[in-house]
Amino acid sequence: xxxLKILLTLFALGLAIIPAGCNHGPEPEEIIVxxxxxxxxxxxxxxxxxxxxxxxxxxxxxxxxxxxxxxxxKLEAESAHPRADVWWGSEAFLSTRLASENILExxxxxxxxxxxxxxxxxxxYWTGIGLRARVLAVSTPPPPFPITGIEDxxxxxxxxxxxxxxxxxxxxxxxxxxxxxxxxxxxxxAFFHKLHDNGIAALGGNAEVADQVGNGVxxxxxxxxxxxxxxxxxxxxxxxxxxxxxxFGTLAMPTTIGxxxxxxxxxxxxKLIDFLASKQVEQMxxxxxxxxxxxxxxxxxxxxxxxxxxxxxxKVYAQAQREITAILDGRM
Amino acid sequence: MSFKKDRSSILVAFPAVFVLTLCSVLxxxxxxxxxxxxxxxxxxxxxxxxxFELLGRxxxxxxxxxxIATAMGLPAxxxxxxxxxxxxxxxxxxxxxxxxxxxxxxxxxxxxxVRMYRHLVLPWGITFRPNGAAxxxxxxxxxxxxxxxxxxxxxxxxxRRMDSNVQQQAVLDGALHWVTxxxxxxxxIASLAIVTILATQxxxxxxxxxxxxVATEVRMVFDTGAMxxxxxxxxxxxxxxxxxxxxxxxxxxxxxxxxxxxLLAVTILLAIAAAWGAGQTAGSETVATGDWxxxxxxxxxxxxxxxxxxxxxxxxxxxxxxxxxxxxLSPWTMWKEFGPKVQGAILVAVEAxxxxxxxxxxxxxxxxxxxxxxxxxxxxxxxxLLAIALIRIWNRPGLYxxxxxxxxxxxxxxxxFGWLALAAGRATWTRPWREMRDVASADGASTFQTAFWVIWxxxxxxxxxxxxxxxALSMTEVPATVLLMPEHPQVxxxxxxxxxxxxxxxxxxxxxxxxxxTVIVPAxxxxILTGIGLRALKAAMVxxxxxxxxxxxx
Lengths: 332, 554
Hints:
The structure holds 2 protein chains of 2 kinds. Chain A is an alpha/beta fold. Chain A has 2 domains: 30-131 and 252-302, Periplasmic binding protein-like II (D-Maltodextrin-Binding Protein, domain 2); 132-250 and 321-328, D-Maltodextrin-Binding Protein, domain 2 (3-Layer(aba) Sandwich). Chain A has 12 helices and 10 strands. Chain A has helices at residues 2-22, 39-53, 67-77, 93-100, 171-182, 185-197, 206-214, 225-233, 266-276, 279-287, 299-302, 310-328, and strands at 30-35, 56-61, 86-89, 104-105, 127-139, 162-165, 201-203, 220-224, 238-241, 252-260. In chain A, helix 2 (39-53) links the parallel strand 1 and strand 2. In chain A, helix 4 packs across helix 12 (310-328). By secondary structure, chain B is mainly alpha-helical. At the A-B interface, helix 1, strand 2, helix 3, strand 7 and helix 7 of A face helix 1, helix 10, helix 14, helix 20 and helix 22 of B.
């Protein structure tokens, strides 16, 4: 029996070690952020916040292929017991949806009073800062004719030399939804049929689009401004054209910050939101070339942005994604 | 002693049963239940043209991986099986190195190699266009070079267990190669099957450039509710805000399981083939440690080929990572930046290792029939499905204490690799060990007494090695970790996955190198412990009266 007791004691000790090791519960001054903004940029912002506030920020970033959709799905699945305290999305459509599902809680950051209303949720569910835009990545040397708008992608001279990210997730999905609202469904569908006929390649993500254009595999790609900057910084041979500046403009996307409903660290989370919505952080994003323009400067002053109602676009998001993916795959 | 009287038998078995139930049986049960409870996802089970194409593509790519890996593993296996001296010993240590690296870091190394030298093949019109032929071949090669240690190990062990008299006779008959090949056919088939299974579970190598295989689709379906490929009913239902709304995690989880189901059926067939193939090798239950005639020694040419392969498969990707760095290589700076997440990974790995170790010791004391098969099944379903099952089991009121901590990751790792600890325990039920147990039992020792005084004192190095391997693999496990995204503590792998899409990124390279360096330590210790275990067993078999002392002490 003595040995049995020894065995039981050993087993109990073994089991005790595990929960003891597992009990890495959040420190009082630690907040968790689900972050759709790319890690190379966001991490520097969080480091600055940690330095200023002494509050530790634990961050979960998204993965390029499923983008913020994966993180938003995680937020939704955890809504009964949220792990995250703050949501920092890379665009406004998902945040609009999260707000409509009561995943976010209204909070207007004290530092965001100078942000124009078009970049804030009317009920204060999210606040936008740092504009990125959908742009054309142009290879070096460029095509032998001027590139001015997204309709150049349908030019037969670029047949099989053009690419786009698959619109199942991320900014490309938002872009096609915006086109559905701005152009209407029929015109958008006809445009993407033209792109398919012109041999457009649907790649795994926007970073991939920029990198492939930068490597000379494709001549022209529709992607995000930060991905072009990043590819160029890593030696990619490409330039950026902000499309349709003489016509209807391009999709400008603010990053969006929201407070997660049921957060366990409300004060610290609000402190972070105040920090993220500040001019200082927006300037950091611009300096790091993640964002190109400030929401405070007014997008129209430096970039002609499409006038889009986010709620309308969010409504057609699923349909637009599904149909345009089908067209790019040659199924529709 | 009858089982009824020997209550210690139940107590010795309990830890293994507990670990097995928690880590393997529950997730497997959830998978079956979720498909049964969600009739709408059963459409995924039927092989439409699209699903057939997806499955075919997956098997074609990963079958090619298996062929290349096995071809590379043959010479290395021969060195392991019929090599002597320092080179053979070193190979046992170095060969698993690539396998223990995170697959996505390893593939990133090869991607850097391609990025640096792609201009050399451009004149032949070879471009590494995403999802193009060259890009797919790059992925296939990366996986094959990562997994080649598996066939090498299997073939090496088969050779060590082979009856050397048969081979010696074959030398006299001038038919050594033919006879050896015939005897190795089983392990070769097992290698092909096992490598195919392992490769099909990996998505991180294929995903960055948009290559669609079952593993990439399972993750996409679970994460977004939509496939990244055409002709999928989930996509038809709407990816976002409609149909299978993203918020509906149970539906997405069920759809992900159903998406993987056809491949799982193939996996079962492959596992049967692997078991059959491995069974063909059993010439003897013991592993030879050099007692074959010198005429059977491996040739110098084979050794040279193996060294070249080793340099190619480990040296090239690691050096490519180092050469791709723009910033100077500084281990201290790297540790300062990535240390906390590496420590997190180590901590969870240690916990998983301890959990598996408990099961290993328990199974060495009392073997539960079918336990290895169950643990194997939770390995075969792959890290992604295991993670999905655990998220669904633990993300519910009353269980958040587990969901929010490293309990779920450690269960996932023990479920995924626990079979290795059990296999280490199973190794103590082979003939030499059985004889010792019989002696102890005849002297009246209980199950516990036999385990405590006879088996564990001799088997601890092997059992500990099994636990350490579980820990090492846990540190570098990609599929389960990326889905679980452990929060407390955070680990490095999900961050690596966010970076892997960047064509060249210093942080990705540095973090990969630091993970590689970290995982080598437990791997080396495991190999050394296995050697100690084998030597201890050999010493014990030379007439040691250990078994008799057990009953006296007990």
